[in-house]
Records
---
Amino acid sequence: MSEDVDPRDTPIHPRKRLNLIGHEAAEAKLRAAYASQRMHHAWMITGPRGIGKATLAYRFARFILRYPNPEKLPSGNGLAVPGEDPVARQVAASAHPDLFTLERAYDFKAKKVKTETSVVDSRRAESFFGRTAAAGGYRICVIDTADDLNNEAANALLKTLEEPPDRGLFLLVNHSPGALLRTIRSRCISIELSPLSTQQVVQASTETGILTQEAEARRGKNDFWELPEMAVGEELQEIAAIADGSPGRVLDLIDSIGAKAFQSFLTLAAKLPKLDPIKRFDIAEMMTGRAQDRDFTLFCELLGQWVADTARRNALENRVSAGAWAEAHGQIAHSIRVANALNLDRRQVILEAFSAIETAAGV
């Protein structure tokens, strides 16, 4: 792989995706704001990872750059721009002069993405807004993601948000709004995206070509990606059902030992309050041997979410076991944190988690 190519620049990068599954209400709201000719200068698009937040941000940016006059918009409520349009091609190639992306930099020497967005990067956005728009319309900054800004970068961005440039637009992609500076949040209009349905996850993973393109991307850059077997049919349906409404998460779950172990757990959990002792041990064994750190992490995330959802469902139904499930969730989360910090035996951590689940289910 060429040393001067960012490995994140794959065919499935959000700025290259023309289709967006779901989120029609959010699209309509953004379009209406633009058509009103009184559009706010900063929008924060929030929601869980992998559900299309960045895709929506680039989709809105592409639409505004393609139609700089809000009085002359095409019919409809969406934000579609044809892929053959010159603006769409420029955005896909990161070549549009009026679009700037603020994100974590890629360190070509170390061959890895930096852990945070620095103040140097943030000041580049300030410099971008100091220029005149090349096409005479909006200058747009997509911040992907605002979660990655370090304190200095966030404060530098805040200064620009407080004194917004004329016809300047900020689109902040954000997973955890509560972690962002309150002063930044207060200057943005927030649009919260909801997780997709299972069928929408399947649709987004197939119709948009994410899985096919991801396979090709991994083949072409196998020093950065591992090439999995692509899921189809019934297997894809099963993966989509545990993807928490996130097409992006499907890519993490495909060919994952952690995902397979969790699927085995779901089958086992159907017979609670007792878990088959042999099968529970087999699941724990899956986390040793060929399993990697990411498999263990993924299994723990899925298991923790399942226990949390069970506790929440019991609480809504006013069941006496709600407290026991909440306690089990706390115990499991603590055990996982300690195991990761001290590099303890994963098998034992999982077996203890299963014991906590049995206890809660027996209340």
Note: The first strand starts at residue 42 and ends at 46.
---
Amino acid sequence: MKRAFILSMLLCALCSAVAQDTIIVTDSDADEIVHLWDNQTAKYSNEMEKDEVVKKKFKVYNTSSADLYIFKAPKEKATGYSVVIYPGGGYGYLSFPNSFPVWLREKGITAVVVKYRLPNYGHKEAMLEDAVGAIDYLRANAEKYNIDPEKVGVYGNSAGGHLAAWISNYMPDGKKPAFAILVYGAMERNRYYNTYAANSRLAGKQITTADAEALSASNMVTPSTPPTIMFLSDDDDVVAPYSSTIYYKALKQHGVKSSMHIYPSGGHGWSGRLKWPYRQQWLSAIEDWFEVLDNNNKK
């Protein structure tokens, strides 16, 4: 009896150690939330033991499950395009966007914000599984969301920009996203362009220079990298602007259709600022670029 009791207590302790509390971002204007999987049901785990928490409405920490926040374009406005959005946060938290996916929805573009599992000091396989899984889910449910499975693209800002570029090159030919929108992305991961803290969260505390170079987006580009548009500000003192220009150079060297816009001010993190002076220019440039994609597809 005593042995059975001890075994029962050990099982309870084990369950409590692996089952973290997950959260819903209640301030999101998403139309639907879809749960993909968590550390217990996915192929990979990020080994996160802490409970998920939300700070300041839209900053999510300790993610241990993958969930999709879907902003579905109305059927009468739907263009067929959809954008999978990877939030930034230095790979230490997720800074959920809200105004941008709402804007996309109003333009007839379905937006999906991915609450992905953070790499948690070297468990990047779980994060990649979530990032790819979001694209696969959209394509498998294209009819439900009034989208064209051939027009699913990716978007990311800061660390999310790096992840979006990574996915653009990581997925096999024929399955890659249709396009990428990268906003002040932390594209280069070596010590000259990023911080050790962010890199160690991504690749582990024992990250080497070779590891960082391999994770730099410019070293991933091939001629099959999808069309890419990039945005940044000249006075960004968090992620150096040349981190993006190096990626742009790699895109051009491989013949990838690409465009880059550099604004004179804004610093870092301006995509959610409704009063940022260049906000309308930024949104107009994205809208124009979708027209360019359409024209290219017709050729």
Note: Residues 1-18 have pLDDT under 50 and may be disordered.
